[in-house]
């Protein structure tokens, strides 16, 4: 039996007895942890996919140790500018061993699946009732005639007006 779990935002494929490097976790070495975020469970006969998680399934694991990865060199530079920066980084991680993949009763899982869609449907009905009212208010607001903005006089318009008055005076 295997499972795909979501642990600290990362997904891992686990089996009983497997050892994993996961992001740093609180807890002392030797303590047990339970992972409830199981996305998929499968064996030779059947595969269950969660939406987003499989109900009633959990993974038990033991923290073996807290360690650090090998050093990664980070080198930044800009050519022809004399800029160079060299740094190193070591990421912390926790080594865990998977003890067991526990699956709950199938009746409880089906009841929980049946309850969730009903709650979603009622929430959808509430939101759809509000949307047409908002659209109607927008449509009424757009039906009103818009007033034209007053024209601003610019310096160029003043110059042309002044020239026109001078030419009229000289013609008289």
Structural account:
There is one protein chain. The protein is built from two helices and ten strands, in the order E-E-E-E-E-E-E-E-E-E-H-H. By secondary structure, it is of the alpha+beta class. The protein has a domain at about 1-75 and about 85-105. The strands form three sheets. Strands 2-1-5-6 form a four-stranded antiparallel beta sheet, with no helix packed on it. A four-stranded antiparallel beta sheet has the order 3-10-7-4, with no helix packed on it. The longest helix has about 40 residues, at about 105-145. Mean pLDDT is about 80; it is low at about 105-125.
Which terms would index this structure?
single chain, 172 residues, alpha+beta, four-stranded antiparallel beta sheet, 32% helix, 39% strand
Sum this structure up briefly.
With 172 residues, this protein is of the alpha+beta class.
Rg over C-alpha atoms, rounded to the nearest angstrom: 34 Å
Structural class: alpha+beta
Major beta-sheet overview: 4 strands, antiparallel
Distance between the termini: 106 Å
Strand and helix map with partners:
Elements: E1 2-7, E2 10-15, E3 19-23, E4 32-35, E5 38-42, E6 47-49, E7 57-68, E8 72-78, E9 83-89, E10 92-103, H1 106-143, H2 155-171
Antiparallel strand pairs: 1-2, 1-5, 3-10, 4-7, 5-6, 7-10, 8-9
């Amino acid at each position: 039996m295997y499972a795909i779990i979501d642990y600290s935002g990362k997904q891992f494929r686990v089996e009983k007895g497997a050892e994993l490097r996961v992001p740093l976790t609180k807890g002392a070495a030797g303590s047990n942890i339970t992972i409830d975020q199981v996305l998929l469970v499968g064996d030779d006969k059947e595969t269950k996919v969660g939406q987003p998680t499989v109900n009633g399934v959990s993974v038990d694991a033991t923290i073996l140790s807290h360690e650090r990865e090998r050093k990664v060199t980070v080198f930044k530079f800009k050519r022809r500018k004399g800029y160079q920066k060299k740094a190193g980084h070591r990421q912390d991680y926790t080594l865990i061993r998977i003890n067991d993949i526990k699956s709950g009763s199938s009746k409880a899982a089906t009841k929980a699946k049946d309850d969730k869609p009903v709650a979603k449907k009622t929430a959808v009905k509430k939101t759809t009732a509000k949307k047409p009212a908002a659209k109607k208010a927008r449509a009424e607001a757009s039906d009103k005639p818009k007033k034209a903005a007053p024209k601003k006089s610019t310096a160029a318009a003043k110059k042309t007006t002044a020239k026109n008055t001078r030419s009229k005076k000289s013609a008289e």
